[in-house]
From TrEMBL:
The lineage of its organism: Bacteria, Pseudomonadati, Pseudomonadota, Alphaproteobacteria, Hyphomicrobiales. Belongs to the SecE/SEC61-gamma family. It holds the Pfam family SecE. NCBIfam families: secE_bact. One of its GO terms (cellular component) is plasma membrane. It comes from Bradyrhizobium canariense. The chain crosses the membrane at residues 29-48. Keywords: Cell membrane, Membrane, Protein transport, Translocation, Transmembrane, Transmembrane helix, Transport. It is a single-pass membrane protein. This is Protein translocase subunit SecE. GO terms for molecular function: protein transmembrane transporter activity. It is found in: Cell membrane; Membrane. GO terms for biological process: intracellular protein transmembrane transport; protein secretion; protein targeting; protein transport by the Sec complex.
Length: 63
């Protein structure tokens, strides 16, 4: 069941027309949210790493 390239491109165009593209505002807000979440995750993992480091150092008696 081969589809001609012309028919394929027609179907691609019709499917692309159905896509709801985000507005500039939505894209900006989503981007800011991603950066905020990256910052929060960075702080969390930094804090967790420091706590684990202190615990391991204490348990092993390393000065």
């Amino acid at each position: 069941m081969a589809v001609s390239p012309f028919k394929f491109l027609q179907e691609v165009r019709s499917e692309t027309a159905k896509v709801t593209w985000p507005t500039r505002r939505e894209t900006t807000i989503t981007t800011i949210m991603v950066f905020v979440m990256v910052a929060v995750a960075s702080i969390f993992f930094f804090a967790a790493d420091q706590i684990i480091r202190v615990l391991i150092t204490f348990l092993l008696g390393i000065h």
